[in-house]
Structure formats: C-alpha cells, structure tokens
C-alpha cells in the first residue's frame, strides 16, 4: 500500500534550509540500497520555466539530437522576454497563447517513446532534484526528468498566461501540476513507493476546509485526498504563536528574518497558546472529530508563505479554517526561530523568475 504524507514546515517549503538539508542527508544514507529502493528528493512546482527549457535542450543534445528542433522552437519563442515572467504574461494578454503551440509541440515530442538506449540506468538524478544528487539512479529517471521538465514548461506557460486575468485559474494550474508530478513520480517508483510532500499550509491543508473553496480554488491536500484516500494520506499542518521566520516582504525581495508577533486573539494559534503556554504539541485529530469542540469550529489560522507582512496581521495573514477537516494532525510550536538558508553558490543560474501572483 502506498503511503502519502503532506507536511508543512513554514519557510522550508520555498527554499533550501539547514533543517531541510539534514533531511536530505537521510536520503543520501540510502545510496547503498538497490536503485529502486533509494530515497529521492524531487521538486513539484512550476517556477523553473527557463531552467527546464535548458535542461530539455541538454538532454536532447546528448541522447536524442534528432529531436532538438522542438525544444529550440520553444526556447526561441520565450527568448525575447529575457527570462522575465511578468513580461511574458503581459505580452500574452495582448496576443493570447503566444507560445502555447510551441510548448504543446515540445511536450508531445518528449512524450513519444524514447529511442533504444535513452533510458539506460545511471545517467541522471530524476525530475527536478534539489541539486544534491539525491534522487535514485537508473530506471529511466533521466528521461522521466526530461519529460517532467516539458510538463513544467507547458504548465508554467499556461500559469503565467492565466495569472494576468486574476481569479483562481493560475493557482489551480500550479497545484494541479504539483499533484500530477507527484502521481508520475509515484507511478515511476512502483506500488510500494511512499512520499512526503513538503510545502506551506496553503498547499498542504485541504482547501475545502477553508474559504479557498468558495473562491473556486483547489490545492495539493484536497486533490491528493480525493484521488488517493484509500492509499493512506496524512496531512500535517504547522503553526506557531510567535517568534521569528525567514521570508520576504514581496516577490523578488531578499529573504530576511522577520518577527512574528503574537497571534491574533481568537485564532487557532492563540487558542493553543492559551492551552499550552510555552509548549510544543502534536495534535492528532480523530475521524470524525467530536461534535462542538474547537476542532470543528471555524478559526482564523495564520498563513506565512514566501511573502510575509507582519504589519498586515490586524486585517490579513489569516485563513478561516476548520482545523480537523483541513489536517489529520497539526504541529504547534509556541515560539519558533527562523531557519537558516543554505548558500546559493552551487546553483548553476542566478535564480528563478521573480514574478509570482501569490505569496506561498
């Protein structure tokens, strides 16, 4: 039986940190196992359009040079925007589907059966690995990585094209892409595979237990529960009453340590602080939760993502939540300390496109 666990850990979902690096060290400890039994570390998001195009070109030039043409057509279509996602989004609002046909052609080309020899084991490290070589070797992972990069390009193009129109469409494209990526990884690794999804609460917690549902939004937690409930899905949320966090005050800002003020009165975090002052706790919710207790009430629940604005605490930063429906368990830390980002000196390109419509 497959086991799925969605886990939220605040800032760690949007950048590499020392705590997250420690979890990667555990992955590295499985390298002595057979290829099919090793742990891997994979990315799920769409924010790598240009990186993915370059990775596809590298793969095709090495393994399937007769197929490079479709990738070059897509790359040339995006080239005038100088890796500026906002410029592409604004341009596509004037000329709809500006690069759509090119990325659809590229995706179709990558989905065709690979020539003999393109799936030899030991070539690659899997779709969107975290740069540490932690994904298992072999088993066609290098071709899977190329195909996944094509999916990233296609969904990122659709995401940026839709975000200029507002509404839930761009958000839903992004989270559906994450779940489709997860499904492909699970299918690739077989029926005994297990996965932990590391993301912010806004992606992990079931959207149907929040006001996201009334806005027409879905998320990873909801979609995985709907598709894989019989496989054993456990959604774990995370929150704190006060402390510090590393975030930016807008997209593209340098991350910095910010003070998280005491939670809003009446919120989930304030309730747990009052019940457990100075403590840490793991709350596991019964199924179904008891009637009339705090787990079934709609409470404000603080949301801290890549972008956080402490000054907005009085009127923003909180999501109305029925906690026992949103999560299966919840980790509460009364006071948290900001994580330390790892250096970026090992990254081959300066960074990802800087313009995104949300802060998580």
TrEMBL record:
UniProt GO BP: response to antibiotic
Annotated CDD domains: Ere-like
Pfam families in the cross-refs: Erythro_esteras
Region (Disordered): 114-140, 341-360
Top-level taxonomic group: Bacteria
Biased composition (Low complexity): 126-135
Name the record gives this protein: Erythromycin esterase-like protein
Organism whose genome encodes this protein: Nocardiopsis aegyptia
